Automatic annotation (TrEMBL):
One of its GO terms (molecular function) is translation elongation factor activity. Pathway: Protein biosynthesis; polypeptide chain elongation. This is Elongation factor P. Residues 130-185 form the Elongation factor P C-terminal domain. Its main location: cytoplasm. It is found in: Cytoplasm.
């Protein structure tokens, strides 16, 4: 058990029968009335983010979760197969637990979140940035840059990312996995 004083970003709690990650929190002490804590909670299973307010001092049940490094091996009819980087054991996750699958290539390192008591995999997370090669994009037209113009580009995993006009085919780019946006060109 924990109280609202123990809240921190990344804390996993049991709330309304599900596991939730605290992504943001703010302690508020109004001039009149009791103190409270505003939070943004992310559902581990669905990825849905909700706002919730807890009265200060309320006890909540924490869930023990562990982050373990894995490597993506291949995809088959059962889902996505990963190998533990330490024990070399394989884990298969269905598509719902891998939200960024179209940015993942074979050999990609990911972090899988496990519920420590039941040893159940909860979700997989890519690093913040991944490097991918552009397989197809239209050539940029010179002089077409009055504003921050962009064009669609298909990367080696099949995902379509919006990139600036000066980016060409067969170039390596860095993609932000949180927002699916172009970050920079890789030399």
């Amino acid at each position: 058990m924990a109280t609202t004083a123990d809240f921190r970003n990344g804390l996993c709690i049991e709330f309304n029968g599900d596991l939730w990650l605290i992504t943001e929190f703010q302690h508020v002490k109004p001039g009149k009335g009791p103190a409270f804590v505003r939070t943004k909670l992310k559902n581990i299973k669905t990825g849905k983010v909700v706002d919730n307010t807890f009265t200060a001092g309320v006890k909540v049940t924490t869930a023990r979760v562990e982050q373990r490094p894995h490597q993506f091996i291949f995809k088959d009819d059962y889902g996505y197969n990963f190998m533990d980087m330490n024990t070399f054991e394989q884990v298969t996750l269905n598509e719902k637990l891998v939200p960024f699958a179209d940015l993942m290539k074979e050999g990609q390192e990911v972090t899988i979140l496990f519920h420590a008591e039941t040893e159940t995999p909860l979700t997989a997370e890519l690093p913040t940035y991944v490097e991918l090669v552009i397989t197809y994009t239209e050539p940029g037209i010179k002089g077409d840059t009055a504003t921050n113009a962009s064009k669609p580009a298909t990367v080696e995993t099949g995902a379509t990312i919006s990139v600036p006009l000066f980016i060409g085919q067969d170039e390596k780019i860095k993609v932000d996995t949180r927002t699916y946006t172009y970050a920079e060109r890789v030399k």
